[in-house]
Amino acid sequence: MTYEGAHTADGIRLLVQLLMTDLRGVDPVAVRPEAWAEPVRGWLTAGAALAAGEPKRALAALDDPVPEETYDDLVTRALRTAATATDVNWAPGGAVTWSLPPGDEAALLEAVGGTGGRLAVLARDPGLRLAAFLAARHLPDLFVARAVVESGRVIDAQPSEVVEAVGGAAEAEEALRWFDEVPAEITGGGLVAPVAYHLLVAGDLRARAGDRRRGEALSREALRLVPGDPAFAALSSLLAGDAELGTPGAAERRLPVPAGRRTLDRATRYYATADALFREAGASRGRAAAALRLAHVARLRRRPDDRAACVERALILAAAAGDGACAALLRVHRVLDAVEDGRPHAGPDVEEVRHWAGTAGSGSWLRGTADLVAARARDWTRQGYAVRGREAGDLAARLAEAVPAADADRSVPRAAGGSRPTAGRSEADR
């Protein structure tokens, strides 16, 4: 194993920002990988793709180092691990709720295998180890922890080998304790932003588990580390709004949660604050996430005009940011809204989502959209809305169909282009 020494510090910092995927502080289209030499160029291309929720595009940008002979190879392998987990074990709302198909399970197990040894070798370069840890441990662990916390039914869908490989937290309290403590790989990385990010994620897990007080305390602790950083304040507000709705991932999963007027008023204030802060941070991706949630509040209030306006605004923002996963989810929401309203719905939306998932995006994200549509179909059928239920059931079946090989084999674009300036440093880089 050879050691090359320090890489471009700004490039590694930017990679770390991108790997804090839930922060949404850097728009994928703002990243200019060509400003760096290899291997950082390829890493940033993959990091931007992961931030966009496009793991197949990330994998297309990365070598498959066999054997792993250098530190660079280990970081590349870590990014491939993150991409594989995002492709097979990630869904709207945060948790996969089905048993992984044998091929996906095998791919995930192969990807996470050996991660601990690679991180131990990278200990000589804390910056590279931080990036590799966020990619190969933190992100896959977060997917599993959300599944563990949500319910026993969900964790039963996770292969025991996967649970063991990404933290070994077979019970909710174990998962929560693991995230309550900031890992040494993060504290030793020389940046405070990842510490704050970890605390916000841990607070969200606590809130998902029903301990909102502990979640709020972790959020306050996180914000003390990054005073004045609008992206972190925005994420904190976004998560507070999610906690108000009570059910994990309610807005992304388009769940008809039983929320009263005051609850919806509080959630609206949190989401509007998040939107304003993400605007200050220059993060269209974050603003798209806030607008998606405001659309769901309008949906729960039975205000179709407000809902439609928020969905369209969120789609515009997601496209501007290059957030393919958010845009795909919004298209599915838009079709379901049309079904609920009794309006003609856009078949091309569904086909575009399927093509995206088969080329650049995430197969499990597509499966998750099919599941949320199927859930609405069942609800409407039980409630006596036979036409709605049948149309939604047909849409769910179409989303669940395998993407033809001819579509999946088409060339995958590299990092999104455009005229945006190169992403620079922010308060989160400290």
Annotate the secondary structure layout.
Elements (H helix, E strand, L loop, with lengths): L8 H11 L20 H12 L3 H6 L10 H18 L13 H11 L2 H7 L4 H25 L1 H5 L3 H6 L6 H9 L3 H4 L5 H16 L3 H14 L4 H16 L15 H21 L2 H17 L3 H18 L2 H18 L5 H13 L3 H20 L3 H15 L4 H4 L22
Helix pairs in contact: 1-2, 1-7, 2-4, 4-5, 4-7, 7-10, 12-13, 12-14, 13-14, 14-15, 14-16, 15-16, 16-17, 17-18, 18-19, 18-20, 20-21
Mean of all residue-level pLDDT scores: 88
Please state the overall shape, judged from the principal axes of the Cα atoms: globular
**String of helices and strands:** HHHHHHHHHHHHHHHHHHHHHH
Beta content: under 5%
Q: What is the alpha-carbon Rg in Å? A: 20 Å
Distance between the termini: 30 Å
Verbal overview:
It is built from 22 helices and no strands. It has 430 residues and is mainly alpha-helical. The protein is globular, with a radius of gyration of 20 Å.
